[in-house]
């Protein structure tokens, strides 16, 4: 009886010290997070960017290519199941020969069966001026036939670390015969 209670006590002590270690570990990492957040909040700013996205799917040197599809993609009115890999130039003005400011690299896929709804998973990588080497990650639904649509900015790197915000896309030019498009992007981020 006495032996059993010593063992029980020992088990209890070990359990209590485990609980103490775990809760101390949690509060200390929380403290660290708050400090980082406070430091970050102090210098947080809002940046607005505007550029033009050139998606060329036709011709000998397309910037966006279909890399996968479902069996019935070509029978679907929305090309449901098509997955496209893009490395699209981003320029300062709608003119494709205007100054290159970056590239949109990533995937978009047809995710809507009844209405065109693209799923965009893209990095906008900048190559000019103060944003050179920094990037913004966009993830969201793009109802590309609507004149204006909104996608979420879910992160960034470099100048745009911890970015959050939104991207407004507006088609500037679209060729229904080839599918080529020029899209104006206005991005607002807090970072
Ligand atoms: C896709 O098509 C191929 C060839 O027509 C067929 O063998 C295959 O079973 C189909 N797969 C599905 C998932 O329908
Ligand atoms: C951008 O950064 C790269 C790598 O650091 C550098 O080679 C390039 O010259 C820079 N471009 C501009 C326009 O500053
Ligand atoms: C994009 O930004 C420009 C310049 O600020 C503005 O004129 C235009 O209306 C904006 N476009 C959209 C769709 O919000």
Number of helices: 1
The CATH topology of the largest domain is: AOC barrel-like
Distance between the termini: 64 Å
Strand neighbour order, sheet with most strands: 1-3-4-5-6-7-8-9
How would a textbook summarize the main sheet? 8 strands, antiparallel, barrel
Give helix and strand order, one letter per element, not per position: HEEEEEEEEE
Structural class: alpha+beta
* Helix content, binned percent: 10-25%
List unreliable stretches of 5+ residues: 16-29
Average pLDDT for all residues? 87
Radius of gyration: 25 Å
The quaternary state of the protein chains shown equals single chain
Number of domains: 2
**What is the CATH level 1 assignment of the largest domain?**
Mainly Beta
Give the overall shape.
globular
CATH superfamily (homologous) name of the largest domain: Allene oxide cyclase-like
What does this entry show, briefly?
Keywords: Apoplast, Secreted, Signal. The protein is an alpha+beta fold. The protein has one helix at 2-42; strands at residues 46-55, 64-68, 83-91, 100-110, 118-126, 135-142, 148-157, 164-174, 181-190.
